[in-house]
Amino acid sequence: MESAFTGLIQALSGQVQARLEIRNNNKVHVNFDDIALLIEHLPDAEQLLLAAPVAEVPAAGREELYRLLLQGQYAFAETGGATLALDKEESFISLQMAPSLRALTRENFPALVENFLNMVDYWRTRCLEITEGEAEGEALPEPAPEAGMLRI
User: What is the DSSP letter of 22?
Assistant: First the structure.
């Protein structure tokens, strides 16, 4: 019998036209363009974790970067419901989301992944601007909802 997680991964595989391999019965690692995405089934919480690295934390200019991240995180205004996070060593920023498995279907899961990847790309651009010192008061355009699925 097919699990809900397996069905979602099969639907995503069909959308991107590539076979995605489930490891240890609960994890998928896949690269979409230059985004390394982890999809992990969290059975105890009945959730799926989507996580992807966004950017390395620079040695200088961290205060401005952290301010940008916190402002974007406020009420999920610029994260599409995902969470920006900093690893314990403060070396990289990631975007994470853990939607309920019950809310996901074979039909809506590929779109959720696409939107998540677009949000990772958006935050990579924002972080790059800060680390290059070019983000002085400039607002980036919102991610385009019609943007296509990134390729494996």
Answer: P
Q: Is residue 150 one of the residues assigned to a domain?
A: no
pLDDT single digits (tens) 27-51: 999 999 999 999 999 999 999 999 9
- Torsion angle (degrees, nearest 10) of CA 65, 30, 47, 52: 0
What is the per-residue pLDDT for 146?
A: 47
CATH number of the structural domain spanning residue 67: 3.30.1460.10
Counting Cα atoms < 13 Å in the Cβ hemisphere of 52 gives: 27
Residue whose token pair is 């999920």: 76
The answer for residues whose C-beta is within 8 angstroms of residue 100's C-beta and 6 or more apart is 46, 47
Helix/strand/coil for 50: strand
pLDDT of 8-24, one tens digit each?
A: 999 999 999 999 999 99
Tell me the CA distances in angstroms from 139 to 21, 74, 121, 130, 135, one per residue in order. Answer: 38, 16, 15, 11, 8
